[in-house]
Amino acid sequence: MVTTAETYHVPVLLDESIDGLGLKPGGVYVDVTFGGGGHSREILRRLGGKGHLYSFDQDADAESNIVASPNFTFVRSNFRYLKNWMRYYGVEQIDGLLADLGVSSHHFDDETRGFSFRFEAPLDMRMNKRAGQTAADILNKTDESRLADILFLYGELKQARRMAAAIVKAREQKPFATTQDLLGAVGSLIPREREKKDAAKLFQALRIEVNQEMTALRDMLTAATELLRPGGRLSVITYHSLEDRIVKNVMRSGNAEGKVEKDFFGRTETPFDTVGKVIQPTAEEQQRNPRSRSAKLRIAEKRPEQA
To answer: Tens of pLDDT along 274-285?
Structure first.
């Protein structure tokens, strides 16, 4: 499948998310979700040949969109290793970090990767095709109780337990290999009026488990919190309640669990101040790019270090 930077992924909340970084000439910035490079290109344009941008993507397909600039470094890695890579490049502090946590349109539209229920394809779903379990591995090897938990926690599917039982029963007859195998096993449990919505949730749940997305997000935000210099900013776009809750908790309390610590005077101890309110795409952007509809942008600024 041939893609260009323009078709790979349409950047969501482009101006709003980059405005939120409060870019400083000569600053060091990180885009942990390079994808089609839309956000990265705009950051570099606004930096105007000053400072440096490090952009992460674990998918080899994203390398075709690399930006030719002396102010740009592409890091082919999962963003959970942010701290290690910044140490490798000798970067002790950064001025801002942007994350667009949505799955690239490229992945949903690639008929060979198994990310979408729209195509018959191998049940892969790995962002990094070089490592880890595939969706088929998880469906064929995970015990019923854990499968139910995955579908309920990551897909918020009401029929999670019945779906897990149906999956275990089906794999006794034949191992799962394609997207149609999965839909055939659980199709009778999905009401016709919610067919597309529940199928999308099912595939979302498996994708999150395959790529360990929630663990990677927690690790990245912990590293970002340490790396940001005082006054540095986080600008994060989320697409579903699970990741949004983690981002909101980190920005409000400094940890993914949302555990609030207070000092002697009863003041909340958090490394961040939230900047403005949650931003969502305008009606015009949603119409232009339907995949932006569920997007939420949160921005936070690192507090000055206490004396």
So the answer is: 999 999 999 999
Q: How many CB atoms lie within 10 A of CB 249?
A: 18
Is pLDDT of 97 > 60? Answer: yes
Arithmetic mean of pLDDT, 283-294: 92
Pair 74, 10: CB distance under 8 Å: no
Burial class (CB in 10 A: 0-12, 13-18, 19+), 8: buried
Over residues 69-84, the pLDDT tens digits come to 999 999 999 999 999 9
Radius of gyration of the chain (CA): 20
Task: List phi, psi (to 5°) of 31.
Answer: -110, 105
- Average pLDDT of 286-292? 90
The Cα–Cα gap between 251 and 217 comes to 13
Structure tokens at 148: 């139910």
Sign of CA dihedral 34, 14, 206, 251: positive
Whole-structure pTM value? 0.88
Question: CA-based angle 212:215:218, to the nearest 5?
Answer: 145
CB atoms near residue 295 (< 10 Å) = 23
Tokens 């003041």, residue located: 267
Residue 1 in contact with residue 64, Cβ under 8 Å?
no
Residues near 66 by Cβ (< 8 Å), separated by ≥ 6? 37, 72, 74
- At 118, the pLDDT band (50, 70, 90 cuts) reads low
Give me 221's structure tokens. Answer: 């935000």
How many percent of the chain have pLDDT more than 90?
69
Residue 72's DSSP bridge partners are 53
- For CA atoms 132, 85, 248, 237, the dihedral sign is negative
Classify residue 61 by its DSSP letter.
G
CA-nearest of 242, 237, 206 to 14 is: 237
The count of other CB atoms within 10 Å of the CB of residue 61 is 19
